[in-house]
Every structure is written in C-alpha cells, then in structure tokens.
Design goal:
Elements lengths: L1 E2 L6 E2 L16 H13 L11 E5 L5 E8 L8 E8 L9 H13 L6 E5 L2 E5 L4 E2 L2 H4 L2 H15 L11 H15 L2 H6 L2 H15 L6 E4 L8 E4 L4 E4 L6 E4 L2 H9 L1
Antiparallel strand pairs: 1-2, 3-4, 4-5, 5-7, 6-7, 8-10, 9-12, 10-11
Helix pairs in contact: 5-7
Length: 257
C-alpha cells in the first residue's frame, strides 16, 4: 500500500469484487488497505474479524459499503466508506476525469475525503449526515442551505480549461449507443435524429452572455446530505461534474416545485 506521507490519499493496484463480498471475508489487498488507512487515522486493525462490512442501498452506478472497526481508545467505532465501481460504467464516463475531480473537491472541503484508491474502487471518509428527501427540499430553511451550497459549488476554481463538455459528452453517448444497439432498437429510440436534436439544443442554449460555472449535473435530493448538528450541506457524487452554463440553478428551482 503506497500512501503519501502528508495525507491519506493512497494508490494501489488491486482489484476487489464488483458483485459483492462473501460474508466474513475480505480480499487480502483490501485488508492491507484498511490497515494502512486505520494507521493513518490513529488506529490499529490487528483482528480483521472485528471489522464489520455493511452494504448500503441507494447507489445506482456503484456498490457502496460501510466499514466499521473498533478504535483502540474505546471511542465509538471508526467508520469509512468503500465504493466499488460498477461494471461497464467507463463506457459512458471517463473514470480518470471523475477521480481527478473527486480528489480536487475532496482537498478543498467539498464532499468526503479520499482515503485510498485502486483501479475499480476507493475508500472514502464516512459522512455523518443524512441523505435529503424530496420533502426536505420543500422546507424553506433546507432549500436556502442547498441554494447557498450550490452557489459555492458553481464558483469552485477547478483546474483545467473552463470548457463546456456536455454536448460532446452526449454525442459520445449517442455514438456508443449506435455501436451496441440493434437496428431495431436504434430506430425505436430514434438515434438517427438525436444528434440533430443535440445540435439544435446546443445552438439555442449556448449564448455568450450566459455564465459558466462548475456544475454537478446530477443535482437531486439523493446526492445532497445534511448534517443535522451543524446544518451544513454536502454535495456528493462527482461522476457528471463539469463546467457548463449554469442551468443548474433553474433545475434546482424545478426540484422545489
């Protein structure tokens, strides 16, 4: 396990199951990663049998697990998150770009800290907060908190050019869809005309006076978490994040309705 000396960000070439774990068992590489992360957090995991692994529901593109182990000083157990990437997701998303975005956001206090990463997953800080519901967004206080956080998110000074990636990303998806769909499915989903519709939308929606910001592009209540004690909002899931005209503010207003 190679961990940077000054932080918890680690990198290791290992592969862990993407279809769940056998109860009570951990791959050797994951044991090593857990022990290294625990040491960085001031704990010692000598007995891997004391580590609890619980699968969490609600994730669409990954398998997510909560990992607990008893701390050496008797405090409540330490918690971290294991995220295993879903099979085939790289067909639609650039995983390297997503990792770079996640790391940058993590270092600047947006989302959970990255503790360790490997080719098909990562270990993250466990956020002690609850996922919002649709009803939460209709509460004025919560809506104000989310709006303020969203404005902060849009102003993130991310590295690299401030290019709008949405349109070419959709065109790439159309190309992939055409390559894997049967002629019948391609006709049913009108893939032959979608590209023309994308070109039309890009022309109509891309105007010089519109502000470009760093957008989440998957803003829904399941990707928003609220710490009840501090009343702070955390935006999670960075898979679709990119620079874009800030239509997202309008989307947020639609979510409130």
């Amino acid at each position: 396990m190679l961990l940077q000396q000054s932080s918890l960000y680690g990198y290791k070439k290992m592969t862990i199951p993407s279809k769940g774990f056998i109860e009570g068992s951990f791959p050797d590489e994951l044991k090593e990663a857990l022990q290294s992360v625990a040491a960085e957090l001031g704990d010692v995991v000598d007995d891997i049998g004391a580590v609890e692994l619980t699968r969490l529901t609600g994730a669409f593109t990954n398998e997510v697990y909560q990992i607990n182990w008893p701390t050496k000083n008797g405090d409540p157990s330490q918690k971290i998150l294991l995220r295993v990437y879903g099979d085939g997701i790289e067909v639609f998303f650039n995983r390297d770009n997503e990792i770079r975005t996640f790391e940058y956001m993590s270092r600047h206090g947006h989302g959970p800290r990255l503790l360790c990463r490997f080719p098909n997953g990562r270990l993250e800080e466990f956020i002690h907060a609850r996922t919002l519901s649709a009803a939460d967004l209709r509460k004025h206080e919560t809506a104000v908190l989310v709006a303020a956080k969203l404005r902060e998110f849009h102003n993130l000074d991310m590295p690299g050019p401030r290019n709008v990636l949405l349109w070419n990303r959709i065109r790439d998806w159309i190309r992939v869809a055409k390559s894997i769909c049967s002629p019948r499915d391609a006709e049913e989903f009108r893939l032959c005309v979608i590209k023309e519709e994308v070109n039309m939308l890009e022309k109509q929606l891309s105007q010089d006076h519109q502000e470009i910001g760093f957008c989440h592009n998957d803003l829904q209540y399941g990707n928003l978490m609220l710490d009840e004690e501090t009343r702070t909002i955390t935006i999670i899931v960075s898979l679709l994040c990119s620079f874009l005209k800030i239509y997202e503010s309008s989307l947020f207003i639609c979510l409130l309705c």
